[in-house]
Amino acid sequence: MRGESLEVLAREHGTTAAKISKWRDEFLSAGKEAMKSRNGDAKDEKIALLQKKLGETTMDYELLLDKVRRLENNHPLGRRRSKK
Q: Where in the sequence is the domain holding 43, given as residue range(s)?
């Protein structure tokens, strides 16, 4: 990977150039897969955050709809409690 000759490496390590080439390819492939899963983790976190925000927004929307319906039907809203 640093430009070294496969034949020289094969002699140094007592194996064939084909085997070293295969190891290099497997190493590079595994690295690519690891990067994909890393990107997936970031995407999963972002999806979870957006789902949470969507749930909160949906709940707020439903509460506001209920409040509007009550006001339109002249039903009093519940009293607000003091924050003390």
A: 6-72
